[in-house]
Amino acid sequence: MDDTGYFNWLCEKVNLYSSDNDMYTNLIDSLRNREFYSIIANDDNRAADGKYLRVTYDEEFTDIHYQGDFDAPCTVLEMLIALAERMDDDILYNSELGPRVDVWFWMMIHNLGLDYATDDHYALNDNYGQTYVDHVLDMFLNRKYKANGVGGLFPLREPHENQRNLEIWFQMNDYISENYRL
């Protein structure tokens, strides 16, 4: 099924088509094609949030409708965007700055070390191409990053517990507490 409209909608949410981010089209496509799975209790909530983006799109564009499979597994791209939306809507929203879903999404990309995976690196198939992206995502999904969260979505300077054992939601809250005054 063709889900081009939905994919473009997701890309717009993270401002992919801006001059700052348009060098990441291959990375975004890799995230789109990678299934998100959880090995920690309650991380399935992050997958549910990601899949709910399909419903949101379908409701927002009633004349177009989502053309994909509503029951297909959540992708890493969907999970990251949904998490960025939750960060913005539920915790970090600033009425003066407006929505910043793209800011939180790219922050997580940076924290994973995926900001090196530009289209140029994909084209060269060098150290930061598809093999690198696959490795980083394997480390993230299988919780093989450092205990302080380095290599994951939310690295901490002073973790109170092993971040590999915490669900993503709690990692996010610890990260926000350590980095942002609310």
Give an overview of the whole structure.
It is a single chain. By secondary structure, the protein is mainly alpha-helical. The chain has one domain (4-146). The chain is built from eight helices and no strands. It has helices at 4-13, 25-32, 44-60, 76-92, 101-112, 119-124, 130-141, 168-179. The longest helix has 17 residues, at 44-60. The N and C termini lie far apart (43 Å).
**Strands, total number:** 0
Query: Tell me, what's the shape?
Result: globular
Task: State the end-to-end CA separation.
Answer: 43 Å
**Category from helices, strands and their pairing:** mainly alpha
* Tally of alpha and pi helices: 8
Oligomer: single chain
Give the helices and strands, then pairings.
Blueprint: H1 4-13, H2 25-32, H3 44-60, H4 76-92, H5 101-112, H6 119-124, H7 130-141, H8 168-179
